[in-house]
Amino acid sequence: MQKGPVTPKGFRDIDPPLARKRRQTINAIADVLEKFDFVPLETPIIEFAETLTGKYGAEEKLIYKFTDRGERELALRYDLTVPLARYIANNLNLITKEPFRRYQTGEVFRGENTQKGRYRQFTQFDFDTVGSDNIKEDAKIIAATIESARKVGLRNAKMLINDRRNFEGVPVEAIRIIDKLDKIGIEGVTKELNGKYIDVITDKSKKEILAPLFQILEKDYGLKEGKDFEFSPSLARGLDYYTGTVLELKPNGSATEQSIGGGGRYDDLIGMFAGKKIPAVGFSFGLDRLIELI
User: Fold this and answer.
1) DSSP strand E in the chain: where?
2) How far apart are the first and last CA of the chain?
C-alpha cells in the first residue's frame, strides 16, 4: 500500500536492481564507444528556452518550459543533440584539426502522452561526430551502434537505414506522418496521407544513394547487409533537423517494431548557433527501451 506522496504522471523511481542494470549497460556501451574514439561530455539539464525552440518542428510543443524568479524563459532539455550543438558553437576550437567525437548519457524531458515503456522523463545515450561530412563517419556511427547492441546481448538487432534526400519534394507534414509507421502501421499512414506519397515509402530503387555507405560497412567493418543493416524506404525520422542519412535500430529488423534508438546526419543544426555550416552525424539509444529488451 502506498503511504507517501506519488510521483507526477510520466515520472518514476528506479529501484536498485534496475538502476544497477542500467549502470552496467551504460558502462558496456561506453567501453565500445571509447574503442571507436568517442570521449565523454556532460551538458546541463536546463537550457534557455530560445536555445531549444525552433529546432524540433511539430515536436516542439512537448518541451517543458518555465520562467524562473529572474523572469528568464528556461526549458528542460528535450534531447542531448541540441545542447551538443550549442556546446560546439561555443567551442569551435574542438573541430579545427579533426572531428570531435563525443558520447553522453543523461535525462531528457518531453510532455507527451505516457504509455507502456514511454515516460516524460527518460534516459538517452547519445554519441556523435561533429566537424566532418565524410560518409566514413556515418559508417563509424552505425558500426559502433551495432557492436554496442551485440555487446549487451541484442543478437538480432538490425539497423534500418535511409536518406532524407530520398524525400525531396515530400512536404514536411507528410514526412512526419510517414515517421509514425511503427505506431500506426502502413494502413494508418496510408489513411493519414490520403493515399499520397505511398510510392516514396515502397520504392526500393532509392537504395542507390546509400551504396557507398553500405560498401564501407561491409568492407571496413565486416557487417552484413540483411543481417546487421538494411535499406528501409519508409524510414523518415520526424525531427526536422535531419539532412542526410537517417537511422533506426530495431530489435528484430522490422520497420513496425518500436525502435531501440535512432539518429542520422544533421549538417545544418549546429550552424544555427555557430553562424556557419558544421556537419554532424550521430545516434541515440533510448536506454529505457534497451533495458526492457535485455
Assistant:
1) 39-40, 46-48, 65-67, 73-76, 100-109, 121-130, 158-163, 229-231, 245-250, 261-265, 280-286
2) 30
Q: Distance between CA atoms of 23 and 26, rounded to whole angstroms?
A: 5
pLDDT at 58: 78
C-alpha cell at position 292: 526492457
DSSP 183-240: HHHHHHHHHHTTTTTGGGGT-GGGGGGGHHHHHHHHHHH---BTTTEEE-TT---S-T
Q: How many CB atoms lie within 10 A of CB 22?
A: 18
Q: Which three cell numbers stand for residue 44?
A: 546541463
Q: How far apart are CA 208 and CA 138, in angstroms?
A: 16
Question: Model pTM?
Answer: 0.90
Q: Do 252 and 158 form a contact (C-beta atoms < 8 A)? A: yes
> What are the residues facing 126 on neighbouring strands?
104, 284
Average pLDDT taken over every residue of the chain: 91
88-102 pLDDT per residue, tens: 999 999 999 999 999
DSSP state of 171: -
Spatial CA neighbour of 173 closest among 84, 236, 98: 236
Confidence of residue 76 (pLDDT cuts 50, 70, 90): very high
Grid coordinates representing 32?
Answer: 565500445
Rounded to whole angstroms, how far apart are CA atoms 91 and 70?
27
Rounded to whole angstroms, the Cα distance separating 184 from 177 reads 9
What CATH fold (topology level) applies to the domain 16-293?
Answer: BirA Bifunctional Protein; domain 2 (3.30.930)
CA 226 to chain centre: 22
